[in-house]
Amino acid sequence: MILGRERLDAAPVGCAGLLVIGDPHVSSRRPGRRKDPDWPAPVLAKLEHCVVLANSRDLAPLLLGDLFERPVEPDESLKSRLIRILKGFRHRPVANVGNHDIRHTRLSDGDSLAMLAVSDVLDAVPESGPAAHYRADGRLIGLGATPFGQAIPSEARGLFSGAESVVWLTHHDLAFGAGYPGAVPPQAIRGCALALNGHVHKRHAPVRIGDTLWVNPGTVTRGSVDLVAHVPAAVVLSGDLSLSEERLPHVADVFDLTGRQVAADASPEAIGRVESAFVSLLQAETATDLARSDDGALIREEIEAKFVRDETPEPVRAAIRSLVAAAVAKRGA
Fold first, then answer.
1. What pLDDT, in 10s, does the model give residues 205-250?
2. Per-domain residue ranges for the chain?
3. Which CATH code for domain 6-247?
4. What is the pTM of this model?
5. CA atoms of 3 and 124, how far apart (whole Å)
């Protein structure tokens, strides 16, 4: 269901703990540099493993957001496969809403995540606030969540009557250690002992801010080469809020690193072949870069690198990214 107060008004879900799953990004479209012969089999296999793990240890699953790579997944067969997997959980998953799950600023009926929610495959949290409560290993835990683009609360005291601890899910650009442009430092949520963030795909060391321990488990799907060293893992949260990592089955060598691990050719002849205009990247109707990857990842890499080299203003970057997205969508139609 799309949650209101239904889970809060019902009895707490009894379980041994919670299983936290970061950003699956399920999609029929293979990420550009992944070289898996059968996509999205690796993503679905990880979710199937999570089902077995959760059921064998009586864990209630939590999805940190971006269950889907695109707000509207066009492959009906893939959605059917995903539904079968999610229905395998003994406890129905609670899903926070990520930026990839929504076409607009809020979850809406046209989004694939909403379809799963109204089909009672999972419970989606559409608005920031209290979402559910669990009796994990005999201890009452209140669960809140804030979808992407909504304000993370600074106060959680008094939101869950009788709860021994409060856990909050977020899906935001938060700076854990070395941040990146646009990221903001996590802030304390008074009365919340633990906050679990999606959206940031690399795993980071936990950070304590005031009352709140902030944890960023990272994605379970390595979709870009900056995650080449990332080990996909779910996180088990016990009733006493202790955390343990459960590594998921994966293959280490999954990226085509052609052009990423060789020295650059600095000869005058090579330099002379490099065109300086962005239009040269966007005009290739036959073009190898867009054709070589399902999602345009390779041409995006080239463009982003040029942005950095040329210190391109952000409004220009946004316009060019929009053009590339439209071109990729047109090819995939």
1. 999 999 999 999 999 999 998 888 899 999 999 999 999 999 999 9
2. 6-247, 268-332
3. 3.60.21.10
4. 0.80
5. 6
